[in-house]
Amino acid sequence: MRRNLLATFVLSFVFSAAAISADLPPALSHMEALAGDEQRLAAAVRDFDRQQCRLAQWDMDLAEELAMAGDKDLAQETMERAKDRLTMVQQAYNYVLERYPDNGRALTYYAELLYDYQGDHAKAIMLWKKASALYPELSEPLNNLALHYCHTGDLSMGLAYFDKALKLEPNHPDYLFNLCQIYLTHFPEVAKRNKWSLKKVYRTAMKMSKKAAELSNEYELIQDYAVNFFAAQNFQLEADWREAARAWQWARQKARTTDEEFYTWLNEARVWIADGNKAKARECLDAALAIRPGNDVATNLLSKL
Known about the structure:
The chain has helices spanning about 40-70, 70-100, 105-120, 120-135, 140-150, 155-170, 175-185, 185-195, 200-215, 220-230, 240-255, 260-275, 280-290, 295-305. By secondary structure, it is an all-alpha fold. Helix 5 runs antiparallel to helix 6 (about 155-170). Residues about 5-10 and about 10-20 have low confidence and may be disordered.
């Protein structure tokens, strides 16, 4: 589980009573053939979970856009489709857990569904702790518990869970990303807990951020690493702006859309402005404006140069 915020979206409805059933709906009847194979069944449900949650999130985003545009009926229809997707995922996990109640990964991922989309934090925490107790070598529930406690005010407990998760998987990019976010947003508490200076908190966070980006080689974590240079001022430090520029160039290589490419040009320009290099800043702003002609932010920055 990777997030900047604890939960991305919690639905305004509760799951219907049908979601409690451990029977598979017709759309999942093909999974009955896997019922006797615990590992294959759990893996198939996890794949189904990922697919349907992505689609449900897309439906929810679309429903929000439709509601803002005034099409309330279609927004409701789209939200109901998201609800149906998530209900099927819950039914699938119930089907697994009725047969294999101690499957650690099913417990972990089902708890994520409950936490994020049903808002049942108490049950999710109970399931993560059960999974961790049954399988001490399983890192995912530890990471999830770390996020929960850090975002609900028990930073010491959360950091202790992060320590355990990273001891098991020191090169897991999501865990490094999550812990870096905590360091950068709760730096006074982290400094006090670890008996570090604020400068050490920032430098440690940046090492984790860079390592996460290198391990994942994904746009999201690379651009997050690039963004984190701007946080140096919170720690009374001057950022390494040239390294920041290289980070934005690296992110641009991984950009998947023109919007992401524009974002890298715009922020690389900000980096060069901070470094005092107006010529390079102009080059970046010109490239940004070639993608989005007339963009107010890029135009204003260019005019200030």
